Design the sequence.
């Protein structure tokens, strides 16, 4: 019993908590890699839809319900944020002025200002650049958005960890960065 109490205390107070930003539509293959890694390593997470509602879908049309919406995200309650990509850029470009996209950028900026762990794949590096948190940092990004980066240092690497920023080129490269991210989240 004593060991169980110690494990519970460790889990509740020592493990970092992650906010997962779920764009709509989200790439399910990418999202589920993060969630599975967090679940398997007992890292608490909360999913936040970057949308007006908690109902989102994957690129392949699977419906999902997130825990909350991004406008309700309070950075002070989390130690890290993950940007789960999908058809982010076309949808973001069409809806950049929407409150949920502005809330997403503000949340990313706040996590960055507090030097908290930040991770993402695909166009995550571009979102981090737009939010102003990737200046001078090396990033892995989808090859199609490499030229769009303004202040981040684009690379051709599958994944990059630069300080508090963890990025992967695509959902097919997330597995290369996850061990490093999980290690930081469980230290």
Sequence:
């Amino acid at each position: 019993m004593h060991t169980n109490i110690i494990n519970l205390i460790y889990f509740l107070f020592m493990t970092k908590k992650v906010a997962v930003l779920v764009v709509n539509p989200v790439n399910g293959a990418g999202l589920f890699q993060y969630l599975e890694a967090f679940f398997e390593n007992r890292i608490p997470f909360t999913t936040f839809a970057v949308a007006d509602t908690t109902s989102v879908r994957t690129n392949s049309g699977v419906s999902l319900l997130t825990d909350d919406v991004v406008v309700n995200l309070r950075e002070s309650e989390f130690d890290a944020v993950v940007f789960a990509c999908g058809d982010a850029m076309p949808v973001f470009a069409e809806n950049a002025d929407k409150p949920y996209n502005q809330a997403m950028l503000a949340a990313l900026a706040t996590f960055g200002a507090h030097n908290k762990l930040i991770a993402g794949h695909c166009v995550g590096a571009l979102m981090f650049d737009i939010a102003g948190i990737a200046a001078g940092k090396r990033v892995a990004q989808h090859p199609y958005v490499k030229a769009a980066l303004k202040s981040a240092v684009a690379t051709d690497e599958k994944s990059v960890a630069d300080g508090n920023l963890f990025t992967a080129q695509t959902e097919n490269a997330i597995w290369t960065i996850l061990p490093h991210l999980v290690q930081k989240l469980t230290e």
Notes: The CA atoms of residues 70 and 104 lie 6 Å apart. The first strand starts at residue 18 and ends at 23. The mean pLDDT is 92.
